[in-house]
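User: Can you help me understand a structure? I only have the sequence.
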Amino acid sequence: MRAVALLRLALLAAPLITPVGLVTGQTSPASRDSDTAKPRGWLIGGSIGVPTADGETSPDLFTVAVHGTQLRPGRLGADFAVGTMPRAVAEGVVVGFARAGVALPFQLSHGVLILPSAGVTLVGAASGEGGGGSSGLNAGLAAVIFGARSVGLRTGVTWHRFGDAGASVALWELGLVHVPRPR
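Assistant: Let's start by predicting it. Here is the structure, written out as tokens:
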């Protein structure tokens, strides 16, 4: 499925997960703004991702990453990820990447967090024949869906633009995160 089609699907599905009271204003401002009902701390987890460039998806170059987002709904917090490409490693090329920046988490509804983010990306590769690296900027959008337990499903996309590349790379990710309990 192409990136544009996935974005359209996400935009069509968003109204289905948004509570009617939030959209129509039926929820009291006190209950929406209550700090006591919002989780705080760090979202820490792991994910697998599939890169897409120039409309072409490359599942054989899937990524494995560990990521963390400082969770303070409505306030900027730190956001990071580090990972690798197992297939490249199996082929004798050590690949590593790091993403660091900020996220602005907000609670869409009870059990649903939206995480827009932006920052810098570093990627490097090395083999017996040499190595190299690049840096760039990124922007992303993720959603975390969680229930009564402290585990949530995180899904999202991050667009990476490198100064020496002609096209941007989108990384579509799916993973599990630890969700801190509300304080």
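Now, to help you interpret it: The chain has one domain: 44-178. Residues 44-178 form a domain with the Porin fold (CATH 2.40.160.20). Let me know which part you'd like to focus on.
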